[in-house]
Amino acid sequence: MQQRTYTMRDFYFWKITISLALASFFVFASMYAVQPLLPVFVDAFGVSVSTSSLSISLTIIGLIVGLIVLGFFSDRNGRTIFIKFSLLGSVIPFLLIPLTDSFMIILALRLLQGFALAGLPAASLAYLNEEVEKRSVGVATALYISSNALGGMMGRVLTGFITDHYSWETAFYFLASVGLVILVAVFTMLPKSQNFESSNQSFSRDIEAFLFHLKNPALLLVFGLGVVLQFSFTGIWTYLPFHLQADPFSLSLEAVSNMFFAYGLGVVGSPLAGWLAGRLGLRQVRMAGIVTLSIGLFLTLAQSVVIIIIGLCVACLGFFTAHSLTAASVSEQATHHKGSASSLYLVAYYIGVSLGSSALAPVWSQTGWSGLVLLTGVLPVAYLVFVTAMQARAKKVARK
Q: What pTM does this model have?
């Protein structure tokens, strides 16, 4: 028999919300913590820029695999066990990585860490929707998603600051310490599932649901936009430390890491985008977000650090606006299996992260910052033109 769900007036609502916000903060801090450290890895281990960037992209590949595998098991074995597994699996690599002098072992540990990280996104939103009353779940979800952005931002800032003043090993041990505190808090506070119902579907049925969406041209365009947006956005941030630590800027790692505070606009951009979309229309606001992203990226071509910072802030506002509305449009386009459609968008989104981390290394090596910005700045607008043309063509065919 199903138990009653929690509302904002319930103490357990806040235990759930705070637990998932803390878990989200640490998981996303762990995911992106190495981004400002890529030049450090190049110097410390004597690896190439493209090899250094694998410390991000392999983590994301592990995450993508984990989203599919752990999502399947979460539907059958419960939610809280995977949320706790995600935290534990995030902490352990930070304790082991500083003990090795092999970058290949570091990459292997980051791949495994990525798989473990997937436990949280694979189970958390389903857990919220099962345990929290419908009118209150929006508040809990908003706090969870805001913690994603906050964790990603602070993970980058803190590792850069600590590495600049001490060492990258110290930064990892610090992250492990924070993770252990959060792990204890979540193990203590997170309530057991009351309303979880195990799925009896076979794995092949889940795969059928995924394949169903891959036959929908409208959804494919949305998934493609998710890849393109994250490809361009991640690409800029991945190679920014190399650009700003070189001449003529010669900024310290701490100064470069502070640039990631621009991510704070993501906390503002997502709810603002939702509010504007309700008044002006989703497509119009999303188009504005894409154009704003490209304008911000092109501003980073300036030789002034101040203008570069402004450009990064504009790019963050545009990206989070476009991304949040693209994610929202998935449910509109999907007629069946909306959950698997959202999961596929998440997979597409993280494919963009992985490609933006490593696939752009040859562009950076051959053309430098100007070539990188030209590609990442033009691509979102070019894809927007392509999508608009395809949609117009589909409408024309439908009229016939």
A: 0.86
